[in-house]
Write a structure and sequence with these properties.
Blueprint: E1 15-16, H1 38-47, E2 53-56, H2 63-71, E3 74-79, H3 82-91, E4 103-106, E5 121-126, H4 149-166, E6 167-178, E7 180-182, E8 185-187, H5 189-200, E9 203-211, H6 216-221, E10 233-240
Parallel strand pairs: 1-9, 2-3, 2-5, 3-4, 5-6
Antiparallel strand pairs: 6-10, 7-8, 9-10
Helix pairs in contact: 1-2, 4-5
Bound molecules: S-adenosylmethionine (SAM).
């Protein structure tokens, strides 16, 4: 198994483009809406040191946690869906000279009061559902991908407060999120969420534009007559406590 990416270079500008999804270690692109491992790798190398405690509150298939294991960070992955955690567990099941095995916890990240104490975390990478454009479950009450836009933004408000509470002072919370389109109009989900975090008290350090490649919906729309542009970018907000 190849544990480290070939030709990996740290990003230096505010526009990120990964045309090939990274395939090192156990990374795979088959979990709906998962992110390329180049994203957490870049963020971990820029904003954390070895032994730091890293939280991924919407860990899905475990992309961030695999990188934590490879880079000797103490990863904590939370997801509300046990099926996601099973996938993450399988992907973390590889031998590597690591000091820390990431922890996986089933919980609702909009309320972590009984799970993570105040000011415990050195870095957060959050990749929430993009409102309800991909539903991650049919019947999990706390799954925020089942909510309408207003309810979703309310829950993201609670979530941002939890991020502020669990993060150490001066540390970074990063959020990967894209906009969505409804009835041909764009809903600026990214900026809505950015503003929620700013209102919670975070300082906005960076807005990074990440191009979207290998997106299933691009194939769906490819040969259809449409009078709007396909959304092909997402944001990574870098927010400091
Ligand atoms: C966009 S995916 C994350 C993908 C992940 N970055 C990866 O690379 O696999 C969003 C995840 O949020 C989870 N989720 C939804 N509501 C949640 C909640 N209230 N608390 C924790 N996780 C939640 C979903 O089950 C889903 O796995």
């Amino acid at each position: 198994m190849v544990y480290n990416p070939k030709n990996f270079e740290l990003e230096t500008t505010s526009i990120w483009r990964f045309t090939e999804r990274g395939k090192w270690a156990t990374h795979k692109g088959d979990y709906r809406g998962n992110c390329p491992p180049q994203v957490p790798r870049n963020l971990l190398l820029k904003y954390t040191k070895e032994n730091n405690i890293v939280l991924d509150p919407f860990c899905g298939s475990g992309t961030t946690l695999i990188e934590c294991k490879l880079l000797n960070r103490k990863g904590i992955g939370i997801d509300v869906n046990i099926d996601a955690l099973k996938i993450a567990k399988e992907r973390l099941n590889f031998k590597f000279k690591t000091v820390y095995e990431p922890k996986l916890i089933r919980a609702d990240s909009t309320n972590l009061q009984n799970i993570i104490p105040n000011e415990k975390i050195d870095f957060i990478f959050a990749h929430p559902p993009y409102s309800n454009i991909i539903k991650y479950s049919e019947d999990i009450k706390e799954d925020i991908s089942r909510l309408n836009l207003t309810e979703f933004l309310n829950q993201m408000n609670s979530f941002s407060k939890e991020c502020f509470r669990v993060l150490k002072k001066d540390k970074i919370c990063s959020v990967l999120i894209g906009d969505i389109r409804k009835n041909k109009n764009v809903i600026p989900l990214g900026f809505n969420i950015m503003n929620i975090f700013i209102q919670t008290g975070f300082k906005l350090n960076e807005i990074i534009i990440k191009e979207q490649h290998n997106c299933k919906m691009t194939d769906y729309w490819k040969n259809k007559q449409i009078d709007f542009y396909l959304l092909k970018h997402e944001y990574i907000f870098i927010l400091k406590k």
